[in-house]
Amino acid sequence: MVTRSLQDARECLGGEAVASLPPLMRAAALRLGLARPGWNVWLARSGPLCADASDLERWQSFAELFLTRDGGLRKRFNKTQGFPPDCAE
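-> structure tokens emitted (89 positions)
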């Protein structure tokens, strides 16, 4: 069930978008450090995001970054999410 849900999410986002996530998430994890310890999975595993349960922690941190508390898509990113004003990413 988890794998199917992740496959659906990957399909919905599209391969190109999913492929662009690891460097962005890794950069945010580096900037936030101890403020978001759950994001350290991006430092340990920097390869492509897999649509299976073995990558669930990275999917969860991705959702934490891109979704608001209400479950909507985040419209802006700032230093709270690991992207300061002059950030090139």
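The helical segments are 2-13, 15-32, 41-44, 56-66.
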